[in-house]
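ok so for the tutorial part 2 we go from a plain amino acid sequence to predicted structure tokens. step 1 is just haveing the sequence, like this:
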Amino acid sequence: MWNLQGTPEVNYTFHSWFGYQRETICAEYLSENGTNIGCTLPYIKGQRFEPFYTKLEDSSKTYEKKHDLKGKVKLNPPTNLTVKNGSDLNLWFYWNQTTSHTCVESQVQIRKNDNNWETLDVYSGQQHYVQNLPSSTARYELQVKIRLSSSCGQSDFWSDWSEPVVWGFNNTTVSNAKNGEMPVWTAVLYVVSAITLILLVVILLHNERIKIILIPPLPKPALNSPDVEDWFHFSKGLVKERFNTNFNERACTVREYQPVSRSDSNASDSSRLTTTTDQTDCSIPIAVNEPEDTSAPFYTTVIASEDEQQVSV
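step 2 — the prediction. this is what the tokens look like for a chain of 313 residues:
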């Protein structure tokens, strides 16, 4: 274009050529309001790797410039975006492009529900993107753009974004999703829920019977009787026996003694006489005759009292 600074005041002649070819006059001009403002040139595959020269001249001046076309290529955006549920439970996005896929790198932007876009790179040569384990209750929206990769002379310009493809729960058109309008039935549900909650609070405050049914009061624990007998599930007689405060028990005297042997002149044998005491009742002495154990030097027993010993021959 040679009208970037406005409509030229003089007439120019335009020439161009690739590499070492000879210069040629423009074959097809671009016109605006009846004035030629630019030139459209035919393109042969591979010529973008060659230097491109342009020359613009009038009767007094000449403007010549060398151009590197590798970084000036801008591809058309991808088309025919589709989305499918894969057998691996992943979400697969596919698209088509006019240029050979081996020289093209892709970039996708995806968003979940109405969240911010997330931009991700795709390996060169791939025409698909995988969303791993998508949520069944979420909505996904995806767009793609492409450019020539570094293996084929990387371009400085990405293509425009493709038309979006949408998948997910409550799937609506893209325009509705961008507007972010709340569905009518959702708003109605919110209003009905709020009214119901308010009515329930009013009923609980003004109707004591319903309040007791829905929210029964908790009983307060209290000791009605200070008598400790009421705390236990014993019979009255047993309780009176076990908790008699005037109960007394007679003490027993326990002492150690050595056995006393006593011989009778009319008898040929001798016996050792010992006494013992019933440990359950100290008031009843019981006499026990035991044979003398000559092997033991002595033995001891417990008696109730010295006065209560009984000796017999």
